[in-house]
Amino acid sequence: MVSQLNVDKIYNEGGDNDSGVNLATNDTVKFDIAGSTKWTLNSSGNLFPAATSQGICFGVTSDTAANRLEDYEEGTWTPIIVGSSSAGSGTYSTQSGTYTKIGRTVTFECALTWTNHSGSGYIYIGGFPFNAANQTYYVVQTEQISLGADKVSFTARIAASSNQGFLINSPTSGGDRAAIAMDTTGSVNASGTYQTS
Question: Which has the closest alpha carbon to 11: 3, 22, 1, 2?
């Protein structure tokens, strides 16, 4: 009985002998196809592809682009307040953001409180971790921001092909919504989902 077999590679015997398991690197298992490594299992137990275009296909029995998940990422981002006419700069007491990206879909949260700002025009929230493919609305909760008479603010918008967009206020009695003018102080909590290109 063989208790241990020491080899560098386990490749297919028939055909062109260029696909199989590659064990030549210490503490690493590589999966080779057509003579090159496609996937690697490292010493931490993490499995990753050789190229970002590779992924895992769900719900199909063949390699179909529409069913291939090629990206997963989670992290933090730093939201900022930007003036639409003049960007300006702000002083923040709260400035935090998190996101999760699965494929093209980005889900985010952020919290912002600014005590002074030199920008002008409308209030834009900027610094989103990825540009939006299309114009997208999301939910916000605002405090200490001057709104128009009889108006409320519960939405904001990311512009298409951009990583920023403006806050919106809407009349309580109905009617057209409008962007909110820059305020030197304010607080915003927001969350939403958008698609990248």
Answer: 22
